[in-house]
Design brief:
Elements lengths: L1 H4 L9 H5 L1 H6 L47 H12 L4 E6 L1 H22 L9 E10 L5 E2 L2 E2 L10 E11 L2 E11 L16 E4 L19 H17 L8 E5 L35 H13 E3 L11 E7 L8 H7 L13 E9 L24 H21 L1
Parallel strand pairs: 1-6, 1-7, 7-8, 8-11
Antiparallel strand pairs: 2-5, 3-4, 5-6, 9-10, 10-11
Helix pairs in contact: 4-5, 4-9, 5-9, 6-7
Length: about 400
């Protein structure tokens, strides 16, 4: 990849080559379990060769200049460093395969930064010492008072992925951790596993029917499950721990570009000739984000008195953690006769802050999907993901300064 980054020996693109054993063995492209992190066939957006320039035309020519500190991984590295320097060094992505893609892109961006620094291609004042990923097995037979409470199924959370990055500055090393928790639909039985997180980034969407709002997994309406998730995030940010303050973030749903009336997958006619298409103007804000917006407007308020460019992305939400009208963690434990993690003496009504990480516009390009049959996932383009991490860094920097 080093010569690739310098515009030399540019490999040809094609998903078959990308996903083949030879493609992985050669090391020319990053390949993940999803098979969609290795780049598009669109020449203008090849990984590492595209340059993200907001509000300007894309630079279509490979760069032959030396890679500077702003090239491709600047925001990812800065975000990792800012978290490592703070008391919020463990960031957790909670969600479906899109959240896995985001987690994986963050990991690979940091791996690229480390390799570029080692080879003298990237000069940065916060050197990366190493980036390492580990897996932690999850006990799917957990019990409470003798009751097994984790439902079975192929989407069951069985392992947690965690990447640790060590950065060096002024003779000191600092560590940040990033984890991924598979969460295909609201799963209150897994909330307890998030207790070690300092920051939670969550989303619910693609495994719910875009028309009816019903979940494909458990049949709960997306509106109710979003309420339950907000309730959990409020409780997370207001619960006193040894580390005290915590941060909750809601990620916007990324656009789908199927050739349907609203771009969603439902009723899409998937054929060999099927192509991803731009969203129609009337559906630029797709149904999942509309549902989330309605629920947030009902449960939360924005503090318009706050100063700062990101103040409009702070939601102050009021929730009853012992609500039983929808499947809160409390309702789930009560209905299953579970006893732990429930404090009946605690005031159930809480007010917590949830930040909104809105990145749907960054990914609204139908050319950035891995192939014509998958108009949901996105290719691994370092600069595109780095633009998203730039917004996350801005959100967190303002929040961390205020605490």
């Amino acid at each position: 990849e080093m010569q690739w980054l310098q515009g030399k020996n540019i490999p040809s693109f094609g998903m078959k080559t990308c996903n083949s054993y030879e493609g992985m063995k050669s090391g020319k492209m990053y390949v993940t379990k999803l098979g969609n992190q290795c780049g598009c066939e669109v020449p203008e957006f090849r990984p590492s060769l595209s340059k993200w320039v907001p509000n300007e035309t894309i630079n279509r020519k490979p760069s032959t200049d030396s890679i500077n500190e702003n090239y491709g991984v600047h925001s990812s590295l800065r975000l990792a460093y800012n978290l490592a320097q703070s008391n919020y060094s463990h960031l957790c992505f909670v969600g479906d395969s899109i959240d896995y893609s985001i987690y994986d892109a963050f990991k690979v961006n940091l791996q690229r930064a480390s390799k570029l620094q080692q080879n003298g291609q990237l000069s940065y004042k916060y050197p990366v010492l190493f980036v390492e990923e580990r897996e932690f097995e999850v006990n799917v037979s957990r019990t409470d008072n003798g009751v097994h409470y984790v439902p079975a199924g192929w989407r069951q959370l069985k392992r947690i992925l965690q990447t640790e990055v060590v950065l060096y500055n002024n003779d000191n090393s600092k560590t940040a951790k990033f984890s991924y928790f598979q969460h295909y639909g609201w799963s209150p039985w897994d909330v307890e596993l998030l207790e070690n997180c300092n920051i939670i980034v969550m989303n619910l969407s693609l495994h719910y029917d875009s028309d009816s709002g019903r979940g494909n997994r458990f049949g709960n309406p997306l509106t109710d499950d979003t309420r339950a998730a907000i309730t959990t995030l409020v409780n997370f940010t207001t619960t006193t721990t040894t580390e005290k303050n915590r941060i909750a973030i809601w990620r916007s749903t990324l656009p789908q570009h199927f050739n349907t009336k609203n771009g969603h997958f439902e009723n899409a006619n998937i054929t060999d000739g099927f192509n991803c298409v731009p969203l129609k103007i009337s559906f630029r804000e797709q149904s999942y984000n509309v549902v989330h917006k309605i629920v947030f407007e009902d449960m939360c308020r924005r503090d318009h008195d706050l100063k700062g460019s990101c103040s409009s992305y702070e939601q102050h939400c009021t929730a009853n953690i012992r609500e039983t009208k929808y499947q809160t963690t409390y309702q789930f434990r009560q209905s299953n006769n579970l006893t732990t993690w429930v404090n009946e003496r605690e005031n159930p009504v809480k007010i917590g802050t949830i930040l909104q990480w809105d990145i749907s516009d960054i990914f609204d390009n139908h050319l950035w999907h891995p192939d014509s049959l998958d108009c949901t996932h996105y290719c691994y383009i370092p600069q595109v993901f780095d633009a998203a991490f730039e917004r996350l860094d801005l959100l967190l920097r303002i929040k961390l300064k205020n605490i």
